[in-house]
Amino acid sequence: MSIWEFANPARFTRIVSRFLPWISGAAALCLSIGLIWGFFYTPDDFRQGSTVKIIYIHVPAAFIAINAWFMMFVTSLIWLIRRHHVSALAARAAAPIGAVMTLVALLTGAIWGQPMWGTWWEWDPRLTSFLILFVFYLGYIALWQAVDEPDTAADLTSILCLVGSVFALLSRYAVLIWNQGLHQGASLSMDAEENVADVFYQPLLFSIAGFVLLFVALVLLRTRTEIRARRLRALMLRQVA
Amino acid sequence: MLGQYAHFVLAAYGVTILLVGGLVGLSIWRSAKVRAALQKVERQNGKT
């Protein structure tokens, strides 16, 4: 089966309806394990105290915030090159999820920063690039709302998405590009020296898996909704005509 | 259990539950609303 078969809206809707309950269940299971394990059964950090428990929501939310934009980047490219409507609608469906995850990362970061850094906000490279990414998400959503003709809206938002990808990249690599600011290095790294301790790492992996599965489930659900809304609009226009 | 930082930790989890829960709830609500509207229009058009 070719991946391009998913570009057929009817087939996509059928496949989503079959797999969505399983993906949602897996997301709920992973989130429950990761968050309950992390919140109730891990020790306090010797330096950060109980605030280390914020890692189980802050890091997965930041991970999704950046990668949701990359998913939108890929689906926008598919739209621009191959003109598959499902890909444009998938990008549209992912944007509010990415925006909420970026906001969660910003807010939980601020709440974590206050007791650890002594400030809610600092114009640190990673914090600032995340704020810009959030503004791009809002702009992307607003642009979809502002343009009536769906294909034109898909074209314009795809171009905005390609431009915004620069900031998504900066958000990902800000701590490496500018070795300054308050934000520490990556919590998850191929370098074992940089990683968080194993006692925090294992529940964090479950939590990240839960957030990823939740993102996939929400994208599928919202894309199916967008496909149905598009068909509804077409039928209503036909009735009026 | 959470010591002197309890209100920071609980606030972070509270904000996350509120925002992510709201997103999930709104997504399910809109899905049901659009599906019902589409079924209604399809019935009117004589399709199943």
From TrEMBL, chain A:
Compartment(s): Cell inner membrane; Membrane
GO-annotated biological processes: cytochrome complex assembly
Residues spanning the membrane: 20-42, 54-81, 93-115, 127-147, 159-179, 199-221
One GO CC term, this protein: plasma membrane
GO molecular function: heme binding; heme transmembrane transporter activity
Keywords from the UniProt entry: Cell inner membrane, Cell membrane, Cytochrome c-type biogenesis, Membrane, Transmembrane, Transmembrane helix, Transport
Record function comment: Required for the export of heme to the periplasm for the biogenesis of c-type cytochromes.
Descriptive protein name: Heme exporter protein C
From TrEMBL, chain B:
Cellular component, GO annotation: plasma membrane
This protein's name: Heme exporter protein D
Annotated compartments: Cell inner membrane
Keywords from the named record: Cell inner membrane, Cell membrane, Cytochrome c-type biogenesis, Membrane, Transmembrane, Transmembrane helix, Transport
Superkingdom, natural source: Bacteria
Family as reported in the entry's similarity comment: Belongs to the CcmD/CycX/HelD family.
Transmembrane segments annotated in the record for this chain: 6-29
Protein topology in the membrane: Single-pass membrane protein
Biological role: Required for the export of heme to the periplasm for the biogenesis of c-type cytochromes.
Species of provenance: Pontivivens marinum
Record's keyword annotation contains RNA-binding: no
UniProt keyword annotation of Transport present: yes
An annotated GO BP: cytochrome complex assembly
InterPro entries, A to Z: Haem_export_protD_CcmD (IPR007078)
Major site of localization recorded for this protein: membrane
